[in-house]
Amino acid sequence: MYKIKVNATHTFEVTKESMETLDVVETSTNHYHILQDNTSVKAEILQTDFNKKTYSIKVNNNTYDVTINDTIDQQIEALGFEIGALKQVNDIKAPMPGLILEVSVKVGDEVKENDTLLILEAMKMENVMHSPREGIIKSIHVKYGETVDKNSLLIEFES
Question: What is the pTM (predicted TM-score) of this model?
Answer without folding.
Answer: 0.47
